[in-house]
Amino acid sequence: MKKWIASALVLAVLVFGSVIGFNMFKASKIQEFLASRPIPEFPVTSHTIKTEEWTPHLRAIGFIEPIQGVTVANEVAGKIVKIDFVSGQTLKTGDAIVYLDSEVEKANLKASKGRLPAVQRNYKRMLSLFKKGSVSQGKVDEAEADLLTLQGQIESYEATISRRIIRAPFDGITGLRNVFMGEYLKDGTDIVRLEDISRMQMRFTVPQNDLNKISIGQAMNIFVDAESSITFTGTISAIEPAVNFQSGVIQVQADIPNEDLKLRSGMFAKANIILPTLTEQIAVPETSINYTLYGETVYLISEQTSKDGKTFKQVDQKIVKLGKSIDGDIHVLSGLEVGDVIVTSGQVRLSNGSHVTITESDILNKPAEIPAL
Up-side HSE of residue 106: CA atoms within 13 Å toward CB? Predict the structure, then answer.
């Protein structure tokens, strides 16, 4: 019995010893393999830092509106007897567009004008008799009052008739007609939209912190979705004198030439307010920036030499301070110097001390035309 127990113990020691020995041998071989394995090099694209001119801008959004625009309406009620325009017509200031019935007013005007010669002669006669001492001053005053009253009635009838002819208040293009021949219009009825679109305006807001960066006459580039291939130019024409105390923004207005009549009121627009150009500035592709909780960084590529004399490229993270971005490039305020080489793509697998190889790729080049979605 004792021999059996001793044999079992020896066998167990041999089994466990062989297992432990095999694991130790395996670990040593793995360590030896890893030690002799070359350090992996990750392919990346790069950009060499150089100075250039940088023209910053402020972004804004707003809506296009005409330099003048109004919904033409009638001041007095009446029935339409003539429509003298069509939808989409170009009008000049003072052009008649709608005539309302004014027969009663014309008849009253005619009657008043018929009485005018007699009243004028009566006033002249009273004035002559007064000079001779035949009538009192009261008779002269009464005759003059009758003349002035009649002249006032005539002017009133003429004004009423004139108000029953609706005219274009300025040069512009009409919209769609909202009235029809023979229709009775209440006062204030919308007849047609009239807009002067030879020049347009854009209203937008700017944060009060940027108020010192804008001024009257400052140039702007305006973009609208309807004409995505065209950059419209404009200038700031007015700045609201007061900041909105609730939102902290200030309203700004810009004038935009519209000779080709491509801009229409109500269009949503984006604008870049052009700021003074800065020289010897550093700008890098936005793809090179790594956004983290502790700040923005880039991977800086440097040449290193190994113990055996071989050279390799290594990356190290560097914190940078950024400004505004324009068309895929971003302004670097500090953190980089001329001649530095940074990673522009392939950062996903990188960390401090990683080895890299620089490759050529056109994947980050901007397409000549952005494909439509």
Answer: 7
pTM of the complete model beyond 0.85: no
CB count in 10 Å sphere of residue 339: 8
Mean pLDDT of 87-113: 89
Report the pLDDT averaged over residues 87-115.
89
* The two three-digit tokens of residue 256, written as one number: 């935009």
Beta bridge partners, 335, equal: none
- The structural domains of the chain, ordered by start, are 41-54+278-358 (2.40.420.20), 58-67+196-274 (2.40.30.170), 102-163 (1.10.287)
Specify burial of residue 221 (Cβ count, 10 A radius: 0-12, 13-18, 19+): middle
Share the mean pLDDT of the chain.
85
pLDDT band at 4; cut points 50, 70, 90: low
Q: What's the pLDDT score for residue 191?
A: 93
Q: Which two tokens stand for residue 245?
A: 């105390």
HSE-up (13 A, CA, CB side) for residue 12: 6
Amino acid identity of residue 238, one-letter, is A
- Do the beta carbons of residue 274 and residue 57 sit within 8 Å? yes
| Burial tier of 253 (Cβ tally within 10 Å: 0-12, 13-18, 19+) | middle
What is the rounded (10 degree) CA torsion for 255, 257, 262, 266? Answer: 10
In DSSP terms, 223 is beta-bridged to 270
Write the CB contacts of 55 (distance below 8 Å, at least 6 apart in sequence): 274, 275, 276, 277, 278, 326
Q: CA-CA distances (angstroms) from residue 221 to 58, 206, 229, 235?
A: 10, 15, 13, 9
How far is it between the farthest Cα atoms of the chain? Answer: 173
pLDDT at position 372, please?
Answer: 47
For 157-195, the DSSP string reads HHHHHHHTEEE-SSSEEE------TT-EE-TT-EEEEEE
Q: 232: burial class by Cβ within 10 Å (0-12, 13-18, 19+)?
A: buried
Quick check: helix, strand or coil at residue 57? strand
pLDDT value at residue 362: 57
How many Cβ atoms from other residues are within 10 Å of residue 15's Cβ? 10
Q: Which residue has the higher pLDDT, 16 or 126?
A: 126
- Residues facing residue 357 across a β-bridge: 43
